[in-house]
Amino acid sequence: MTRPKARVPHVKFVLRRGKHYPYFDTGLTRGDKKVYNRLPFYGTPGFWDSYNVMKANRDKRQGPTNIITVDELLHRYEGSSKFKALSNNSQTAYGHAFRHIRKAFGKAEAEDLRPKDVLTFQSRTTAATGNLVAAVLRAAYSWGRQFELVTVDPCRDIETQATGSHEPWDDETLDAALKSTDRIIRLGVHLLFYTGQRIGDVCNLRWSSINDGHVKLVQQKTGKRLTIKLHSALASELDATPKSSVMILADDSGKPITDKRLRAEVKKFTGGKFVPHGLRKNAVIALLEVGCTHKEVQAITGQSLQMIEYYAAQIDQRKMGGAAILKWEGTQRESANSWKTSTERR
C-alpha cells in the first residue's frame, strides 16, 4: 500500500515489507511516549472515515485548533466510504461539481460558507450547474457535520431551480440526423434512438456487446441488465460502420467518442435546440404509438412503469384531443348540412 503525496495532519506512515502502514497521533501520551492508533491503509474506503473520527476526538480534547477550508472538506469527502459507494456516473458528476466549487469557494473557510454565497454562484451559471453544485455541497456538508468537521448548512432553504425538460426531437431533425453524412452524428443518433438508452450507456457499447442480433448492456445509472433486439435500421447502420476500435462509437483513428464529445456534436448539429437525452423520449413515444405495452417498452428502455405511463398519458391525450376535434367538426358539418337542407325545402 502507498502513502499520499501530501502530508496528512497527525498521521505518520511506517514502511514495513513494502507497505506503508498509517498511524494516527491521538495527542495522548503514556509515560513519555505518544499514543498512536492504527488506521486502515491509505486509499481504502475506510481510511478517511476512521481518520475523521479520530481527528474529531482529538479536536474535542484539545479544542478547535484546525480550521478547514472548503477544498479540504471536499478532499476528505472524496476519500470517504460515502463517496466511494456512489456509482461511477455519480462520481463523475460530483467531480464536475467539485471543480466549480473549488474555483468559487475552495480557499474559503468551510464554516464561513453561507446560503447567500451559493445563491450568488447560481445566479451566475446555468440552472443545471447551479442545481448540481448545490446538491454536491449539501451532500459534502451533511457528511462533514456527521464527523463534526463543520456545523453549518450552506444549502439551507435553497430550492432546486427549474431547468426545463429534455424535449423529444421533432421529426424533421430526427430524420436529418439519421440520414446525416456525419458518421458520428448518424451512428450516435441511431444508437440512442433505436436502443432508447442514456448517452453514457451508448458511448460505452463495445462491438462485443452485439451478439446474435441483440445488444447486451448494463445500465450505469440503475445497474439493470438488458438484452435488446437490434432494430433493422440500427443493424444496417452497424453493418456499414468500420470497426476502428473495440468501442462502437469511435472516430476514424479509433479514438472512442466520449459522452462529452457526442453532446457537443449533437448541440452543433441541432443548433442547441435538442439534447441526446431527448431521443430516449422519442424511442418511448415511437414504441407506444405502434401499440407496445408498457411492459414491452420497459423491457427495452429499462425505465419505471410510472415514467412510461406518463408518456402514454401524453400520447393518449393527444390522440383523444384529435379525435374530439374531428367529432366536433363533424357535428358542425352535420348541423350545417341539416340547416341547408331545411332551408332548401322551404
Instruction: Count helical runs.
Output: 14
The Rg value, from CA coordinates, equals 29 Å
Structural class: mainly alpha
Query: Looking at CATH, which topology of the largest domain would you report?
Result: DNA polymerase, domain 1
Q: How would you name the CATH homologous superfamily of the largest domain?
A: Tyrosine recombinase, N-terminal domain
Order of helices and strands: EEEHHHHHHHHHEEEHHHHH
CATH architecture of the largest domain: Orthogonal Bundle
From the N-terminal CA to the C-terminal CA, the straight-line distance is: 104 Å
Instruction: Please report which band the strand proportion falls in: under 5%, 5-15%, 15-25%, 25-35%, 35-45% or over 45%.
Output: 5-15%
Q: Considering DSSP H and I runs of 4 or more, what fraction of the residues is helical?
A: 40-55%
Query: How is the main sheet built?
Result: 3 strands, antiparallel
Residue runs with pLDDT of under 50 for 5 or more positions: none
Outline type = elongated
Descriptive report:
A hairpin with a 6-residue loop joins strand 5 and strand 6. The longest helix has 41 residues. The strands form two sheets. The protein has a three-stranded antiparallel sheet with strand order 1-2-3, with helices on one face. The protein has a three-stranded antiparallel sheet with strand order 4-5-6. It is built from 14 helices and six strands. Helix content is 53%, strand content 10%. It has 346 residues and is mainly alpha-helical. The chain has two domains: 136 residues, DNA polymerase, domain 1 (Orthogonal Bundle), CATH 1.10.150.130; 107 residues, Intergrase catalytic core (hpI Integrase, Chain A).
